[in-house]
């Protein structure tokens, strides 16, 4: 018989037990069945250990606070039902130690018989690193005691996320006020983040609000809004990452005019003038990003492979970006464009193809800052990237097979023969593995996106 234990508040536990009749020698001692399911609510304020033998169901918002550490064993399953869309928040000063393995990933997923995006809220890490204050508080309806984020310590440590999969996440509280698959608020570089996949999320796959953490081996698969959304002064480094879009799946945009992109990177909102510091300035290498490429049934809400805007800077290098719907690379706003003209941003040594125009420049007050033709000249000249008219010309094996994508370059293709370069100052950092190839997958090596911790077809 299955028993359920409820964790309430600061881990008060209610257990079910029975008693034996001591005066009846013929009665066997009672056997208490092992706990296999456990509901979690409220706030965790002491070091806590979740084990793989129990399925943990998050009910509503669950906060890890008071400098506590939540340790989650490899192979542990954490679930949520759609009636509460559970959200796990690791708050400032607390840590998560979720170190799965390739064979035993830690999985956050739906508890529903027919899973759907939004059954799970998502996972939120909140740190003490620097941000620029673009967002005053956390998005997504968290309680007042856990709304603030950020500080002055870029080396802050929020713990470990390794071999973690987050499925069916996303929670829209109000338009523009959502929980994403994985949200990182001012998370510092002391945090370890690698081998994380976000699957079939209702909003963004990954959103980074300020902070300086670094990451490797990330996969965004079939999420409804942006796959890599960075703002509030995020200034970390990421290498080896994948973005794959389901052509028919975007979130409800309402009347916002929003669109869904592989990358969407901002510094601040329009109202704040784009000048808040630190400036959003990610350094990215070895991405493979696959847009819808005007497939049958494509959503009208798809936008760009890359959307750089609102005063952000960036370096994206040694990457492959394909299948953008409205355009491959879009630069919005005068300041963002000026940073590109001045060489403070760059799409470097990469391969680009889109269904729409490869280059677009939009929302400029001074039209002469940069044009689409001028952007093309900079990207293909100074920054040594190449563009292609058709996706087949790049030569990935089967990138638009959404149920079972194969992003490995074909032998002899443009993708297989392109050579990486790490000559830009930002890319010289020891964090980056100095590959000889572009894109997320080594054409001469093992395809890490086909490992057992990764899932497709959802």
List keywords for this structure.
single chain, 458 residues, mainly beta, 28-stranded mixed β-sheet, two-stranded antiparallel ribbon, T9SS C-terminal target domain-containing protein, signal
Summarize the SSE layout with pairings.
Blueprint lengths: L3 E5 L3 E3 L22 E8 L3 E3 L4 E10 L4 E4 L4 E4 L6 E4 L4 E5 L6 E5 L11 E5 L32 E9 L3 E4 L2 E3 L2 E4 L6 E8 L6 E4 L5 E7 L6 E4 L5 E8 L18 E3 L17 E8 L13 E5 L6 E3 L2 E5 L2 E6 L1 H8 L4 E3 L2 E4 L2 E6 L9 H11 L3 E2 L8 E3 L7 E4 L4 H4 L41
Parallel strand pairs: 1-3, 3-5, 4-6, 5-7, 5-8, 6-9, 7-10, 8-11, 9-12, 10-12, 11-15, 12-16, 15-17, 16-18, 17-19, 18-20, 19-21, 20-22, 21-23, 22-24, 22-25, 23-26, 24-27, 25-28, 26-29, 28-30
Antiparallel strand pairs: 1-2, 13-14, 31-32
Integer average pLDDT = 93
Number of domains: 2
Any low-confidence stretches, pLDDT <50, length ≥5? 1-23
Q: What sort of overall outline do the alpha carbons produce when their principal axes are compared?
A: globular
Rounded Rg: 23 Å
Tell me the helix content: under 10%
The chain-level structural class is mainly beta
Main β-sheet description: 28 strands, mixed
How many strand segments? 32
% residues in beta strands? 25-35%
Give the CA-CA distance, first to last residue: 32 Å
Number of helices: 3
Keywords: Signal
Signal peptide: 1-22
Protein name: T9SS C-terminal target domain-containing protein
